[in-house]
Amino acid sequence: MKTVLCFGDSNTWGAVPLVSFAEIRRYGPDVRWGSVMRSVLGPEYWVVEEGLSGRTTVWPDPIEGEYRSGKSYLLPCLESHSPIDLVVPLLGTNDLKHKFGLSAWDIAQGAATLIDVIQRSGSGPGNSAPKVLLVCPPPVAKLTLFADMFAGSIEKSREMAVHYAKVATERHADFLDAGQHIVSSEIDGIHFDAAEQQKLGRAAADKVKVMLG
User: Fold this and answer.
1) pLDDT tens-digit profile of 159-210?
2) Mode of pairing for the β-strands spanning 86-90 and 2-8
3) Quick check: pTM over 0.70?
4) CA distance 207 to 133
5) What backbone torsions phi and psi does residue 9 show, to the nearest 5 degrees?
6) Residue 159: which of 97, 90, 103 has the closest Cα?
7) What is the residue extent of each domain of the chain?
8) What is the CATH number of domain 2-212?
9) For residue 166, which phi and psi values (nearest 5 degrees)?
């Protein structure tokens, strides 16, 4: 059996688009993109869904918690689930928050750092490096509930795919631009509607089949 680790934020956790911070809900396993990918791939694959709301690539959050940094938890996560054949990082949306003041290039460098951790981890079969499928989040849509938190993020989010693709090429990782397959929800501008979760799961499964099949 081949193991695939999906390492992401609230969209990997499966957050339903928000109309109120008082009503945070999670999609069931038949909807979340990681679970959909597992279903498409079949019984020869085990897909681990490692999603945390608010998780960034490498940036500790001074308000929501330093543990939101993906880098801080990645290595322990890799070791606890090893041996891992493939890691699929889908992070960067939370890096767009106004308080971080980051450019699209900065965010891509955070993703690059995660790839470096994965490739140096020895958490693959036989202490090898797991393969990496870097996923760039889709652009942010019109913001409602998150308008102040993500002020100025829409244009930057549209620039991310170019930088992510370059980072993946430089590190010999595979790349998936989620924005070519799905869009962010019109409800809050950040999260994925159920149909988009399923589309992403199928698109990711197609890439995984090529990489590991």
Assistant:
1) 999 999 999 999 999 999 999 999 999 999 999 999 999 999 999 999 999 9
2) parallel
3) yes
4) 8
5) -110, -145
6) 103
7) 2-212
8) 3.40.50.1110
9) -65, -45
